[in-house]
Amino acid sequence: MRTDAPALLDRRSHGASRPARVGIVHLGLGAFHRAHQAWYTDRVDTAGEWGIAAFTGRSPEAARLLDAQDGLFTVVERGEGGDAFHVVSSIVEAHDGADLARLSALVAAPTTGVVTITVTEAAYLLGADGALAADSAAVLADLRPGAAPTTMPGRLVHALAARRDAGVGAIAVVSCDNLPANGAAARASVVGMAELLDPALADWITANVSFVHTSVDRITPRATPADSAEVAEAIGRLDRAPVVTEPFTSWVLSGDFPAGRPEWEAAGAVFVDDIEPFERRKLWLLNGAHSLLAYVGATRGHTTVFDAISDPVCQDRVEQFWDEASAHLTAPGLDVGSYRAALLDRFGNSRIAHHLAQIATDGSTKLPLRAIPVLRAELAEGRSGRASAGLIAAWIAWAAEAAHIADTRAPQIEAALSLSGRARTVAMLAIVDDDLARDATVVDLLESLLAATH
Ligand code: CS2
Prior knowledge:
Layout: E1 22-27, H1 31-35, H2 37-44, E2 51-55, H3 61-68, E3 73-79, E4 82-88, E5 91-95, H4 100-107, E6 114-117, H5 137-143, H6 152-166, E7 171-175, H7 182-197, H8 199-208, E8 209-217, H9 225-235, E9 243-245, E10 250-254, E11 270-271, H10 276-299, H11 305-309, H12 312-326, H13 336-347, H14 356-360, H15 363-370, H16 372-380, H17 386-401, H18 410-417, H19 421-432, H20 440-453
Parallel strand pairs: 1-2, 1-6, 2-5, 3-9, 6-7, 7-8, 10-11
Antiparallel strand pairs: 3-4, 8-10
Helix pairs in contact: 4-6, 6-7, 7-8, 10-12, 10-15, 10-17, 12-17, 17-20, 18-19
The structure holds D-mannonic acid.
The site of D-mannonic acid has 10 residues, from helix 10 and helix 14.
């Protein structure tokens, strides 16, 4: 009987004649990056020129775990019919994001052509006007003389200064977060920070950094200890950092890569001139429905997306929201009908345990991107926007009952919830859209929707 545990994954035994050279620097070493951009790069970088050096944002532990197994990890593609296992070896260095010296050295290297980012929507630190929130505590902390930056824009500006000083030239920065016009959001965040630190550097960044727009898609819930055990069984090695994801994946990009890039289209990525219709379709239909399920589903006692979408009441709410959003998704080639049908299949994957609590986080940042644009489009056409207003009402009802609200704006949410009646509804709406909070018709609608949830 074999009693010894399998050995840890490592590059040599994996037979990895894999990239030794870093071509991509990544900020935000989470599961989504590994299931998505690292997976695409792994599939296409046969010449080994585009190894990834990944830096953590908030959890240095992720770098330690990966480093101990030479950056290798398993992507478990979990379909209804079973699991497929792929060992991915495109990450060649994993670091604590606080290692600014290594970050700067790599961004300043002539062989580095791309910086990718997955740090979540809130970490761009943008205000309602789309500009860097210069008075936020995180930005102010980064601006203190001699401070080691901890924010995404602070760290990236620090590293881009090194590239400018090295005289190495242009580079692409590719946001892979769920924001509309995420390239412009990255530009606003990074150039905004540079303007506060060093206006000449802001000019250099504007002239030399290509901020690429992308729409990224792959449902990637957190992996569990049971997943590690399953991977050990399947690949015969111990993997302390596996990623579990759905079989579906999509990556749409638009923009220039002045210092080259991997041929991601060989793994299915699509390059387009106008990305806006695609990002709207994804943000409104997928992410909007996710948020709706997170709040309505949790209030109805469900735990995962699969549980919630299996409840006809939740599915009906999703369909109503989709009907409303679809009226504004009219660009050619979107094929909204097939997209919706595919989403129902994806949400209905019974083997993916995507926890509603994970999706419910940061509602104050997500709803302005997922619900408000649909509501505003409806109002502009003289309709009430009942289904998108219903998503906002669901968030308010959920927050009022939640034991814990994981949100970068939790203090404002708690202050709003301490009010009662209409004042509370207005204060919550103001967190996601200040202007709409002054619209009595919208507030009336929210009040009636909230009354109906009791
Ligand atoms: C989810 C997304 O957590 C969330 O807010 O809606 O992470 C979603 O799973 C991805 O965008 C899918 O591509």
